[in-house]
Specification:
Two copies of one chain form a homodimer. By secondary structure, chain A is α/β, with parallel strands linked by helices. The first copy, chain A, contains eleven helices and twelve strands. In chain A, α1 (about 5-15) packs across α2 (about 20-25), α1 (about 5-15) crosses α4 (about 60-85) and α5 (about 105-115) packs across α11. The longest helix of chain A is centred in the N-terminal third of the chain and has 29 residues, at about 60-85. The first copy, chain A, is rod-shaped. The two termini of chain A are about 65 Å apart. The interface between A and B is medium-sized, with 30 and 30 residues. Chain A binds a DNA duplex (30 and 30 nucleotides) through α2 and α3.
Amino acid sequence: MDFRQLQYFVAVVEEGSVSGASRRVHVAQPALTRQIKLLEDSLGTQLFTRHSQGMQLTITGRALYEDAQDLLDQRQQVIARLAALDNGLSGKLSLGITVTHLWLPMVAELLGAYRKRYNGVAFEVFPLLSGPQLERLQQGKLDAGILYLDDEAPAGLSSRLLHRDSLILAVPESSPLAEAAPNSLSALNDEDFVWGARSASPVYYDRVLSHLHRLGFNPRPVQYGADNIAILSMVAAGLGMAVVPASAGESTVIPGVRYLRMKELDECSMPLCFAWRSDNDSPTLANMIALVDETLSLEMDRK
Amino acid sequence: MDFRQLQYFVAVVEEGSVSGASRRVHVAQPALTRQIKLLEDSLGTQLFTRHSQGMQLTITGRALYEDAQDLLDQRQQVIARLAALDNGLSGKLSLGITVTHLWLPMVAELLGAYRKRYNGVAFEVFPLLSGPQLERLQQGKLDAGILYLDDEAPAGLSSRLLHRDSLILAVPESSPLAEAAPNSLSALNDEDFVWGARSASPVYYDRVLSHLHRLGFNPRPVQYGADNIAILSMVAAGLGMAVVPASAGESTVIPGVRYLRMKELDECSMPLCFAWRSDNDSPTLANMIALVDETLSLEMDRK
DNA sequence: CTTCTCAATACCTTTCCGGTATACCCATGG
DNA sequence: CCATGGGTATACCGGAAAGGTATTGAGAAG
């Protein structure tokens, strides 16, 4: 029992005769006659009663007719489904991102555009800091991530630079500095600082620290927060001041925190990248990469 | 996309390599390699990533794997279902019968045995008199019937003689005849009779009437009943007496009716037959016919 | 570096499929 | 009663497709 034979069979049933079916499927009548007979033989049953003016279904033939249509339909559906999968029109895509970056206009635009254009894809966004993102990317648990990376991605990963973040100083409203920002960071050597764990985002912290050291500034950490939200909450509570990414400062409005821009912090550039495993050939990912490139070139034009 | 290719594909997936699959399906490895490639081409997609130590499914390959199993399973089910249909192990069978005949031991045994042996068959019994049964049989609305037929069945029908019914006289308990049966029917020429419609069972009535006429007895009908139950109810009500089949008399115990056997009525033979359209090739019917023959030959042995 | 495994390629043989020509069957109509 | 026209079945041929053997090529393991 073969798909071809089933197609012929259905044609014969619907045309009521081999000759009619022969015209419909563009196959000569004797070939059809033979295939129908082979089908009957392989099933060990009689599907038609032959008359001089056509073929009439037997009871078991009628049963096969319904099943044959189902089988043929399902084959079509399988083919269509695979094509959709292969074009990245269906399937799944998992993306890691640090929640504060969701507020960046280009990121919001990117994710919104993807969800809209590829609405058949199960698109999952995982809120993760850069460190865990990198780990899961390398383990293959994540298709893509939006995270802080050095300009050249680690081995096995590919990336696109989405945005260069700068730094900003967050001080408690109660602090005298809230009203009068210092000219230089070196004036803050005696202040209490709230800091984050290096493992949460190694690239970020290494770059921040080396930048600050170059300026002759050695902050004194008194508290550690798990992420920027936690750090800023501590600042609001007056536990100290903090250096955070500008994007986190812009997106996170917390009562009791005053943000201060400083030239020395503006000069520190934090590359925020879209990254994925180079050997991940998922079509949904390919579409996402294409969309990233598209968005980036639009961005270029805009400037 | 072909069933054969799907089988090969599944084998390759489950063995993890073309070579393994080749051993499993008893087809040389290059042939398999080629079929897999053809499958990929026909779907326009990559199903495996080739490694030196085997083949690994791609995402779309994994999707096809599940669908392929489904398709192959369904093919098997279709084949099995057709085989069952063809053996008469499933399907449907409709049978007409006059309800009073359900009490005949041989009929009860026959229907019970069929239902038990072919429990996958949708077996429907329609309570119908002989006339309507014949009509529906000829129209193909009924697969078989148990009805009064002449010894040779009408054109287009085949039959087996199941049983020879005789006649019996039913009189109201209130009648003086209930206590003293007459020797001859001719003594009843002046009695009121309850009769049935010829169309309900033409063969039956024609035979009964010709038999009675031969005996010089011309009953005077005063009431007509739709079936034997109705006729006997009228007898019970004292509206008259009736001649009914012995089987109806034995099965239908109605208060107020006394049954009288008479030699002249015993001699009238009513052939009760199992009948079907000769051109009906339903396997369920074929099994029923075989069962009838089986039962009849058992019956013969018993005597 | 050798060896082993496995996939890919080349080439041949066989099988299967479709096409043409024709026989056959039956219903219809002159 | 025979011709005709619809249909199916059979015979036979050519080409395409599938399978087999032998061999090459590419990695992984020893």
